[in-house]
Design a protein that fits this description.
Blueprint lengths: L2 H14 L2 H8 L3 H15 L4 E4 L2 E4 L1 H29 L14 H12 L1
Antiparallel strand pairs: 1-2
Helix pairs in contact: 1-2, 1-3, 1-4, 2-3
């Protein structure tokens, strides 16, 4: 079971109230989304959602689980962005050493060449 994917399914169900819509948003199949939810509920015991003809209604535990899931997913996304930054060149420091007499025209010219 992919834990982040499971959290995404629970959060999606809270948002959409429907497995099909949540699965589409997550770009997974509806059977996969249903399986992840059933495996999760089977492993923890209590139900996170009440099922009816209109879709899924979260239980109190389901709402709490989704709120915790949102926090965890935000942290995962933040960490992923942090890991990806060095490869994108979007951060870091550049030090330029020039003699004082040439700094007024060499430094701006060098920076202009970078962009």
């Amino acid at each position: 079971m992919n834990d982040s994917e499971t959290f995404r399914v629970v959060v999606g169900l809270i948002e959409f109230g429907n497995v099909l819509h949540a699965a589409r948003e997550l770009r997974i199949s509806q059977p996969r989304a249903s399986k992840l939810l059933y495996e999760l509920e089977d492993s923890i015991g209590p139900k996170l959602f009440n099922r009816n003809r209109r879709g899924f209604l979260p239980t109190e535990l389901g709402r709490a689980f989704a709120e915790g899931g949102k926090i965890m997913l935000a942290q995962i996304n933040s960490m992923s962005e942090t890991i990806d930054l060095p490869g994108k060149g979007d951060h870091g420091n550049v030090s330029i050493g020039v003699m004082q007499t040439s700094s007024s025209y060499l430094s701006p010219a060098a920076i202009d060449n970078l962009f």
